[in-house]
Amino acid sequence: MNQFRIAPSILAADFARLGEEVDAVIEAGADLIHFDVMDNHYVPNLSFGPMVCQALREYGITPPIDVHLMATPVDPLIEAFADAGATYITFHPEASLHVDRSLTLIHDRGCHPGLVFNPATPLTWLDHTLDRLETVLIMSVNPGYGGQAFLPQTLTKLRQTKERIARSGRAIHLAVDGGIDAGNIAEAARAGADTFVAGSAIFGSDDYSAAIGTLRHKLASLDSSSLIL
């Protein structure tokens, strides 16, 4: 899976004009719109719920919406976001009482399922779930807040995850979320990531097209022989 995808996180957007903000990053070349859903329980912050997803769909947003659930319990939110127009839904295995059941629920509601791994969460969950997944998301910060610095040890975890995906023979996206910017996106790609969640690096810029263009330039300049395919 060689195509790189940029997923701006609306956590860093201006919520007073969210529809315009999302329109702007789509026009600037975003592939996915990323939702960081926080419940002030599983993580120490509170963000937004399915009504925001539904509002953006009703506003006219058509690209895929990638919902990252940092919440527990997850199953009611899976159903609510599926009904609201989510495309991808990922969750943390620790936040589900029955991981397989939650993955089945995402699939049955017509969305693409995935798991999310915190910096200290072991990849052994993949031993029992990889055949059910369409995305694995590796957190490169501890979840809960935007604007944190990228943790370098994430690169090792990305490589280990990519090796597991390669052995499975399945076309599974490997995403990375947290502190992604022009200074580290190439390293993350070399480690195996193909989907890059970026909040401040895009919405913190005065020119979204230039910000996304810079990220794509860093990816385009990579030597394909240096990538883990």
Structure commentary:
The chain has one domain: Alpha-Beta Barrel (TIM Barrel), CATH 3.20.20.70. 36% of the residues lie in helices and 17% in strands. With 229 residues, it is α/β, with parallel strands linked by helices. Strand 5, helix 5 and strand 6 form a beta-alpha-beta unit. The mean pLDDT is 95. It has 9 helices and 8 strands. The radius of gyration is 16 Å and the shape is globular. Helix 2 packs parallel to helix 3. It has an 8-stranded parallel sheet with strand order 1-8-7-6-5-4-3-2.
Topology:
Layout: E1 5-8, H1 18-27, E2 33-38, H2 50-59, E3 65-70, H3 75-84, E4 88-91, H4 99-108, E5 112-117, H5 126-129, E6 135-139, H6 154-168, E7 173-177, H7 185-190, E8 195-198, H8 200-203, H9 208-220
Parallel strand pairs: 1-8, 2-3, 3-4, 4-5, 5-6, 6-7, 7-8
Helix pairs in contact: 2-3
